[in-house]
From TrEMBL:
Residue numbers spanned by region Disordered: 1-20, 29-53
Residues annotated as domain DNA repair metallo-beta-lactamase: 369-495
Keywords recorded for this protein, A-Z: DNA damage, DNA repair, Nucleus
Stated name of the protein: DRMBL-domain-containing protein
GO annotation terms (biological process): double-strand break repair via nonhomologous end joining; interstrand cross-link repair
GO annotations of cellular component type: nucleus
Record-level Gene Ontology MF annotations: 5'-3' DNA exonuclease activity; damaged DNA binding
Places the protein is found: Nucleus
Length: 531
């Protein structure tokens, strides 16, 4: 369940009280579903008592007790890659415990398990294939709740019948029917368009799912709060969100794609700005290194970006046009290029964006008028082209550019993925928590730190970009320290017991550090959208 990653971010807001979700524009509704009116029997969330699970050490982390270790073993069996549905095993794969909210009839990103016993509401965090596996036009196992952006995408791409799709408003607590009064607040995840976190609040009313391990709180009046992160890029705005700030979260289902200290890659806004500035300089023929020593060293690189112009009878014609090519994943496979990433580069170049009709249709599922206005069907009108990530390699990119011979003489490609990031030489692989924070916040990232990959030519340059839509280790650390939580449950890279233990040790360290700092004390940040 490991993942590669690409892009998404939100610009910093001048108001510290503004949530990330405020930047997600209203999207075309898919169904007429409205927020359910709370029933008279609904538990009063404001009367919620603090979690009773305050035991220190192992009991504050789900992955460490004997009972939970057994649950993880059970989950490993359920996720066996060799599983084949037969009559003897019920015809379906059993859902691991972390796919069903404890004590609630709610499953998240669990479509591959079919109709899960006791589940009456299925939630989808975002439209990436590893989260909607097996979801198709044949789905009839229950209502699907998601953001409007995700709803648009699964109807468009997968043909899911609209009767099952119920888009929810962001930042609004909505009572979900047939769940015993559970309220959910979707929050912008800062991942891909339409992605969101889900904050569930309510009593435990049923031991739904396939796990043999049951909750002792089912039937009690205690209100539980679960924050399911799906995939997300953690930011200060998340922990300061009005629905989260000041509340104790009983379970945090955490995106642990990069829960390893070697993945402290730069903040999204800095990387986006760096790429836009680099593209602008290359296309305009501005030297990439302005000090004398570096200019001499990079004379060859700077030489190829100079744009020549000649006058014709009708107009001045650019005969040295540089094409900017951005590698993306297909949303049906993994990722989708986000508005912030592509529009930043296109704005810097003052040009249109070209992509094939399939990609354009997916991009138009987003409610982003600026992005839509930049799209063009003419590859010669668009100075920025979106292509599959696999094209951003020397041979295939060369073939792609050859198709426009006579129109573009040079090309620069951007290959965004967090997996390309490597920590500086000599970096401590087991740093203290405070070292992680101070070291990361002291660093900045600019276009001068983007270097062309090996074996490139003067006419063809490719830049690997340390960019991800998932939280870096540093961001996970700040998020964990800034939140008051009872248990933290890893949802990525959990197939190996050894991997779970390594992640569990870091969660223990975060737990100890936040208790020293004070639960819920937000780590100092540079902007609302990044630490």
């Amino acid at each position: 369940m490991s993942k590669s990653a690409t892009s998404d971010t939100r610009a910093a807001s001048p108001s510290a009280s503004t949530s990330i979700a405020a930047n997600l524009k209203s999207l075309r509704p898919v169904s007429s579903y409205q927020a359910a009116t709370p029933s008279s029997s609904k538990v009063k969330l404001e009367d919620s008592e603090p979690s009773t699970d305050t035991k220190a050490g192992a009991f504050s982390i789900l992955m460490t007790s004997h009972k939970e270790n057994e649950a993880w073993k059970e989950a490993s069996v359920a996720e066996d890659r060799n599983f084949r549905p037969t009559k003897s095993n019920g015809g379906r794969r059993k859902a691991p415990f972390y796919k069903v909210m404890q004590g609630m009839p709610i499953a998240v990103d669990a479509f591959r398990y079919g109709a899960i016993p006791g589940v009456t509401a299925y939630f989808l965090t975002h439209a990436h294939s590893d989260h909607y596996t097996n979801l198709s036009a044949k789905w009839d196992n229950g209502p699907i709740y998601c953001s409007e952006g995700t709803a648009n995408l699964i109807v468009h791409m997968l043909g899911v019948d609209r009767q099952w799709v119920h888009p929810l408003p962001l930042d609004v607590a909505t009572t979900i029917p047939d769940t015993g009064g559970v309220q959910v607040t979707p929050i912008e995840a800062n991942h891909c368009p339409g992605s969101c976190l889900f904050l569930f609040e309510g009593a435990q009313t049923i031991n739904a799912g396939d796990s043999v391990y049951k909750s002792q709180f089912v039937g009690s009046s205690k209100v539980f709060r679960y924050l399911h992160c799906g995939d997300f890029r953690a930011s200060p705005a998340h922990v300061m969100h009005p629905a989260i700030k000041g509340k104790r979260i009983d379970h945090v289902y955490l995106d642990t794609t990069y829960l390893d200290p070697k993945y402290c890659f730069p903040p999204q806004p800095q990387v986006i700005s760096a790429c836009a500035e680099l593209a602008r300089r290359i296309v305009a023929g501005i030297p990439l290194h302005e000090d004398a020593a570096k200019a001499k060293q990079n004379r060859t690189m700077d030489g190829w970006v100079t744009t020549a112009t000649v006058k014709t009878e009708q107009k001045e014609q650019d005969v040295g046009r540089t094409l900017v090519v951005v590698g993306t994943y297909s949303i049906g496979k993994e990722r989708i290029i986000t508005a912030d990433w592509v529009t930043a580069i296109a704005r810097a170049l003052q040009t249109k964006v070209f992509c094939d009709s399939r990609k354009a249709a997916i991009l138009r599922c987003q409610a982003d008028p600026e992005l839509h206005s930049m799209l063009t069907k003419d590859p010669l009108e668009g100075g920025v082209h979106l292509v599959p990530l696999g094209v951003i390699a020397s041979d295939r990119l060369k073939e792609y550019v050859e198709r426009f011979k006579g129109h573009y003489s040079k090309a620069v490609g951007f290959r965004p993925t967090g997996w390309t990031f490597t920590a500086p030489t000599g970096t401590d692989t087991l740093p203290a928590v405070q070292t992680i924070i101070s070291r990361s916040q002291s660093r900045t990232f600019t276009y001068t730190q983007l270097n062309p990959m090996k074996n490139m030519t003067a006419a063809l340059q490719v830049y690997g970009v340390p960019y991800s839509e998932h939280s870096s280790f540093f961001e996970l650390t700040c998020f964990a320290l800034s939140l008051d939580w009872g248990k933290m449950i890893a949802t990525v890279n959990v197939g190996s017991e050894n991997a779970r233990k390594k992640m569990g040790k870091w969660i223990e360290r975060w737990d100890a550090e936040r208790k020293k700092r004070g639960k819920g004390e937000v780590v100092g940040y540079r902007a609302e959208d990044y630490w």
